[in-house]
Amino acid sequence: MTSLSQFAEVLDYDEALAKFDPVLGLEVHVELNTNTKMFCGCPTEFGAEPNTQVCPVCLGLPGALPVLNQIGLESAIRIGLALNCSIAQWCRFARKNYFYPDMPKNFQTSQYDEPIAFEGYLDVELEDGETFRVQIERAHMEEDTGKSLHIGGATGRIQGAEYSLVDYNRAGIPLIEIVTKPITGAGERAPEVAKAYVSALRELLRALGVSDVKMEQGSMRCDVNASLRPRAEDQDSVPLGTRTETKNVNSLRSVERAVKYEISRHAAVLTGGGKILQETRHWHEDTGITTSGREKSDAEDYRYFPEPDLVPIAPDAAWVEELRGTLPEPPARRRRRLQGEWNFSDKEMRDLYNSGAVELVEATVAAGASPLAARKWWTGELSRLANLEEKQLSEMPVTPAQIAQLQALVESGKLTDTLARQALEGVLAGEGDPEQVVEKRGLVLVSDDGALGEAVDRAIAANPGVADKIRAGKVQAAGALIGSVMKEMRGKADAARVRELVLERLPVDAPDA
Amino acid sequence: MSELTRRTAADLAQLLSSGEVSAVEVTQAHLDRITEVDAGVHSFLHVATESALADAAAVDAARAAGEDLGPLAGVPIAVKDVMTTQGLPTTAGSKMLEGWVPPYDATVVRKLREGRLVMLGKTNMDEFAMGSSTEHSAYGPTRNPWDLNRIPGGSGGGSAAALAAFEAPLATGTDTGGSIRQPASVTGTVGVKPTYGAVSRYGLIAMASSLDQGGPCARTVLDAALLHEVMAGPDPLDSTSLTGGYPDVVAAARAGAKDGIAGLKIGVIRELHGGEGGYQAGVLARFDESLALLTKAGAEIVEVSCPSFTAALPAYYLIMPSEASSNLAKFDAMRYGLRVGPQGVEGPSAEQVMAATRAAGFGDEVKRRIILGTYALSSGYYDAYYGSAQKVRTLIQRDFAAAFAQADVLVSPTAPTTAFPLGAKLDDPLSMYLQDVATIPANLAGIPGMSLPSGLADEDGLPAGIQLLAPAQADDRLYRVGAALESLLVESWGGQILDKAPVLDAKTLEAIR
Ligand SMILES: [Zn+2]
């Protein structure tokens, strides 16, 4: 059975959608950015030497006991409130029991039937500006496991590996798992809805300041559940089909692709008269397909029971209300407000949002740049460079304040666009603020007539044909001479002044007619 | 045997603070006694000769320098091997942890060190505290100093025997279902299980987290109070630790011995007094004698009924193994302790090593409880087993609440019998479990309990114990009534009960080897 599903054909997406109605479910794990772990005082910094951020508690040494991180609880409640959830008046942690080498205690301290937050929703904006409401089932607290590295196998999985290394630095990092209710009614836009949901969730969590939400570093991880049911007049009355759970889909683009792939694959299996196995599947970023993981039919029994080493959580109602007061403006509303303030078109604002630059532009404007200039920098040159380096905009080593400074230099006439791009290059290379780069690299605009005049004379001498054309009235040919001057002066010439000097030297002859 | 080893801790503290003896002398006397008798009694799994003498010398130096020392500074103590001790081996009586030296101290151990008590070594116990005879230790049984062919009780048989054999004046214990009180009962010593949460569980290798409680073991009620005071207190490392409500137990013990108990109401629990409980006649006779003494001293005896107690043992044998099955999952050979490769397997997988290690490292009783607990928590059985058992727990708490409305303290025999011969119940787990029938309800309800000697049973001349129970956080009542009863009993015996114990001479000890 496994091998069959492994090499399953896929059905054309449009054909699949004509026959079936897709239903999705998304489980998102978010690492909180608390200073210490969920149940001990170990630091949570990313990228430390393996097994240096550990203690008796997160290593599960005999006798050690957990103590709940209050900031973790606070973040969980704020996330729940921001997702329009009810907050439990009384709830507990539970132990999820299973054996795995990267779990120090061989149980994960999690929440089971008593989540801290439940029954909420998140409105997500689709690319055409339409809003789709995703119902939230629950958000609960748990601890992360350690990280395994399996060496010597073909697949990078534990089966077939020669040996494995485990880093427990991650063990005990606070996690919030956010689970949607079955997402119905998205139809052919299901992949887009999935992507938009994860994107909106990421934006919300970032605005809350509770997580780094870096999918590429694993501080936000997504599991995608998908199932199909036959199309029908009264779609809601058709029971849900068997679902598969695709684990660790860790970029926005992959979420969209994985959903699309699973819909096409399910459709092929079902159309061919086969059955969907309830199983977990692995996502392959490179090939864009999923393969069968372990079957869930032998229903893993996690033997959940209330964690006796922790006391029940009963958040004070007044405290919850106080936390509600700390919620940021909902990102969608904030975007509409900013769009008005900045006077951007719907499309301009959407592009800005899709490139993840809203906060960056906002900060750049706050640092003194005009909205137009700020948008131009972030969606123009910086987006281009980020694409080249396959980075997120927010990861570019330049601050909004530096961009604002750069723009000020341009507007005061001290830098041309070309020079400004060179200054930016210096900033990105770590040479300091734009003003320092200008200083160090000597990126000063030459507008001294003496030096410019000599360069113009040389350009005219070297291009007699062009000079004749200008004299003959083809003023636009001056561009070639200006370019030649700019090239000689490595972009540091004041282009407007060069143009004036060229035209002064090459007056248009009186027309013949 | 040095006369010093027959002194109470209170006496030794007095001699030490007045400078009549040095801590080194006291420690050496006890180390000599251990050398003399422990090959026969086997109270200790590890004797810390060097560090004990060094610690004692440090106390003497501190005292000479005029430092302010705690009331028990320089008094030796034996520590149950279930408590982690930095730098000293800690096995919990299991092969699984043979040779493991913890990198951290249990909170209780830290408090002992801060109080400058001198740790003589680690005492024997049933593996992971599972048993009532110390025969389930992976390192061989401890023998009862009253009769070396009999059990010293369990799981804390090592600590109780060390007291009865005058190897230590004080010892620590843990009590999940009677592991402090039942050994005290069968060795003619005093043991107290404080209110759940009064003594930190941090660093106590867990059996059942919601039931485990550390407590003092001693030869007199006052000594137990002095040690109780050192061990108890809030601990930020244990979430279930009580934040307040710690009564002055030392004052209560002194007041009880001095002022008596006139006017106090003492409730006899009908369900734990004869009937079908399999109580030995001599145990009941001594219990009734104690009641008569209390009446004579002005206490009012009332009968109370706790009908749910009949379900206590079955409920305990669902909750305890359930929690234990999860708590013991961490012993998997991955990070510390025993590691066994499966026989005849080249390059075994992590899973195979885990299985082989757990098969080889755990004894039969531990495996029995892990299997029981795993079954009880399985999906489909959870409600019927773990869920129902938790309801019984609530009923028992209600029974206690009703009983304490009628009486200040409750009493029962501690254990139904005196010490039984080694091996007598090894093949009959149920009859072994019945040893704890009277002690288990206190653990299920979280209330404090004390066992003190009530005399020697006529039929075998072995010690019997009486159990006192008080409401949660009213541990002082145990000490007040216990000290009063103790002084009445000692007066009636014309000396300490242990004065009647047979002398452990070379011939008796030789016969064992
Ligand atoms: Zn830690």
TrEMBL record, chain A:
Q: Which residues form the Asn/Gln amidotransferase domain?
A: 359-506
User: Its catalytic activity?
Assistant: L-aspartyl-tRNA(Asn) + L-glutamine + ATP + H2O = L-asparaginyl-tRNA(Asn) + L-glutamate + ADP + phosphate + 2 H(+); L-glutamyl-tRNA(Gln) + L-glutamine + ATP + H2O = L-glutaminyl-tRNA(Gln) + L-glutamate + ADP + phosphate + H(+)
Task: Tell me which InterPro entries the record gives.
Answer: Asn/Gln-tRNA_amidoTrfase_suB/E, Asn/Gln-tRNA_Trfase_suB/E_cat, Asn/Gln_amidotransferase, Asn/Gln_tRNA_amidoTrase-B-like, GatB, GatB_Yqey_C_2, Gln-tRNA_amidoTrfase_suB_CS, Gln_synth/guanido_kin_cat_dom
Keywords associated with the record = ATP-binding, Ligase, Nucleotide-binding, Protein biosynthesis
Family classification? Belongs to the GatB/GatE family. GatB subfamily.
NCBIfam families xrefs: gatB, PRK05477.1-2, PRK05477.1-3, PRK05477.1-4
Q: HAMAP family under this entry? A: GatB (MF_00121)
Protein's name in the database: Aspartyl/glutamyl-tRNA(Asn/Gln) amidotransferase subunit B
Its encoding gene is what? gatB
From TrEMBL, chain B:
Would I find ATP-binding among this entry's keywords?
A: yes
The active site consists of: K80, S155, S179
Q: What Gene3D superfamilies does the entry give?
A: Amidase signature (AS) domain (3.90.1300.10)
Could you list this entry's UniProt keywords, alphabetically sorted. ATP-binding, Ligase, Nucleotide-binding, Protein biosynthesis
Concerning Pfam families, the annotation shows:
Amidase (PF01425)
Enzyme category, top tier: ligase
| UniProt superkingdom | Bacteria
What the record says about family reads: Belongs to the amidase family. GatA subfamily.
Function, in words: Allows the formation of correctly charged Gln-tRNA(Gln) through the transamidation of misacylated Glu-tRNA(Gln) in organisms which lack glutaminyl-tRNA synthetase. The reaction takes place in the presence of glutamine and ATP through an activated gamma-phospho-Glu-tRNA(Gln).
User: Quaternary structure per UniProt?
Assistant: Heterotrimer of A, B and C subunits.
What is the name of this protein? Answer: Glutamyl-tRNA(Gln) amidotransferase subunit A
Lineage, uppermost ranks: Bacteria, Bacillati, Actinomycetota, Actinomycetes, Kineosporiales
